[in-house]
Amino acid sequence: MSKSTEIASLGEFGLIDRLTKGLGRRNASTLHGAGDDAAVIDLGDRVMLLTTDMLTEGIDFDLSYFPLKHLGYKSVVRGVNDILAMNGKPEQLVVSLGVSAKISVEALDTLYEGMETAAKELGVDIVGGDTTASMNGLVINISAVGFARKEDVVYRAGAHEHDLICITSNLGAAYMGLHLLEREKRVLKDIDNPEPKFEGYEYLLERYLKPRARVNVLDALREEGIRPTAMIDLSDGLASDLRQLCRSSQCGARIYLERIPIARQTSELAEEMHIDPVIAALNGGEDHELLFTVPLDKQEAVMRLGLVDVIGHITKEESGVILVTPDGEGIALKAQAFDR
Amino acid sequence: MSKSTEIASLGEFGLIDRLTKGLGRRNASTLHGAGDDAAVIDLGDRVMLLTTDMLTEGIDFDLSYFPLKHLGYKSVVRGVNDILAMNGKPEQLVVSLGVSAKISVEALDTLYEGMETAAKELGVDIVGGDTTASMNGLVINISAVGFARKEDVVYRAGAHEHDLICITSNLGAAYMGLHLLEREKRVLKDIDNPEPKFEGYEYLLERYLKPRARVNVLDALREEGIRPTAMIDLSDGLASDLRQLCRSSQCGARIYLERIPIARQTSELAEEMHIDPVIAALNGGEDHELLFTVPLDKQEAVMRLGLVDVIGHITKEESGVILVTPDGEGIALKAQAFDR
């Protein structure tokens, strides 16, 4: 009898490490495989970046409140973000859809409309796809391709002690947007003509339903001649993604609670729903912002951009990944929760 | 009220045409989008081929009889085949998995083992992946990347009148293998310690569960200096895929019933199960062989390879796509069925 292991028991980084451990490398063009936001393929004069991202109904989205147009838009932003997080220029993507019987052609039109809107905004081309049936729910997979000069690629593994830790916008808003949508769905479950109450929280909905890719920040960094030393897409939440970056870079980090930007709407709804806004910011996930590090001497130049917040700095690995509270206490960050 | 259209009502080519119709092209590197087995991206000195393929549980595979190792193997072969069908050299692929709660880590190990076995045989590297949860059933998406000289790429659209129509192996075997597995599942449904009867039909199971990529045929063609004029992966069945190739090439075709290779095991099981073996060969699908055309003057050279069957030739578009029976009668091929 073979022993069966639940996936959750492997923890945060265990599964992907385990699955990709034994994979061989047969082509000289394969520069870098699993372990970053995208794979890196050598083209000689430059590199190609390749990434894949799957969304499944009931886990990653709920069609009862997620408009298909937004879902199309978001799925493209997610795919493109993985290319941006490697400092690449996204150019093409291919779409696979698993389509359940309840989905009409018009629904797919709307989904594609949203995907094309994002593609247009981000300057990428949808170059093909595959559509298959699905017994249970909609599945969307986006594989995106981008290009970069070899020396411009930014990995998770490039952070050094004293580097500054930057993020591209406030955190936790998407998480609270999701909570709001879930609450209204619960409250209005058995009501005819339900009218969900979203007033005052539109920003949170937008952050969850229609995240923006931060192309402008990368452009601005490039113009200023600032190359991040390490970068990661903030999809799992600041705590998890920062730990991931530190693990790859074999370093530690200190971030400061009062420097973590949290939008007013995020704090207000969190209070209303008895959720700690700091938890939303640290562990909420789906922010789809960029977390990156720059050398200490770029502090002034980075601040001058007015586009990023510096929330802390990189330390030695043995110092761990620490959140510093306003009273100076240091708390070790865990992946899914942190203890006060 | 918007009218809702069922996807099936759009017919064979309708859906993908409709969804990809309005897509823009923003990058000069986008040479060729939807409508072939892979997209074609210009790299200057050569091109990159990019493809995506999704498999969903309950539609594309049944885990009650599909061993996970074979499933991994087959999913890689399918992805790689789309690159081969463009005459490209497959080099990398990325894997997305939607994993339901019933799947253990050991099951994923086995799936990856099968994928890596195929990757090794085909000389490709698995360079990354994404794993998400799935509410209902396993979903596998493979995106494959290959390379080719621009002038070597073979599209569906290159066939000309008088070209010969070639296939790389016998047809209908995978379809009968699937029928055999389904039959044994039905028969043994309520039996303890079921012992399915597969003797004499092992070849059919292998064709369904572990299809082979025909790298050797493409290598042989290259060595002989024969470049196919058009090519397509035989996944939907000969009738549908030949019609697709003819539609892209704006031509017709005549194929000859007695030249369509059907394996002995395929005929025997078809007879036993009261299925017309010709229907299995024409419409069964999942053969994962290559269908390609070569100029008429390559007939002798192609036959000499001993690796392909010539089943007919290309005609003018207005002649239609015709199956010629042994008594000389011509029958117009439909996508999903043909009328005697």
Comma- or semicolon-separated keywords:
homodimer, 340 residues, alpha+beta, 60s Ribosomal Protein L30, Chain: A, Phosphoribosyl-aminoimidazole Synthetase, Chain A, domain 2, 2 domains, seven-stranded mixed β-sheet, six-stranded mixed β-sheet, 32% helix, globular
Walkthrough of the structure:
The structure is a homodimer of 340-residue chains. With 340 residues, chain A is of the alpha+beta class. Chain A folds into 2 domains: 146 residues, 60s Ribosomal Protein L30, Chain: A, CATH 3.30.1330; 166 residues, Alpha-Beta Complex (Phosphoribosyl-aminoimidazole Synthetase, Chain A, domain 2), CATH 3.90.650.10. Helix content of chain A is 32%, strand content 24%. Chain A contains 10 helices and 13 strands. In chain A, the strands form 2 sheets. Chain A has a 7-stranded mixed beta sheet with strand order 8-10-7-11-9-12-13. A 6-stranded mixed beta sheet of chain A has the order 1-2-3-6-4-5, with helices on one face. In chain A, helix 2 packs parallel to helix 3. Chain A is globular, with a radius of gyration of 20 Å. The N and C termini of chain A lie far apart (43 Å). The relative contact order of chain A is 0.15. The model of chain A has no long low-confidence stretch (mean pLDDT 92). Chains A and B meet through helix 1, strand 3, strand 4, helix 3 and strand 5 of A and helix 1, strand 3, strand 4, helix 3 and strand 5 of B.
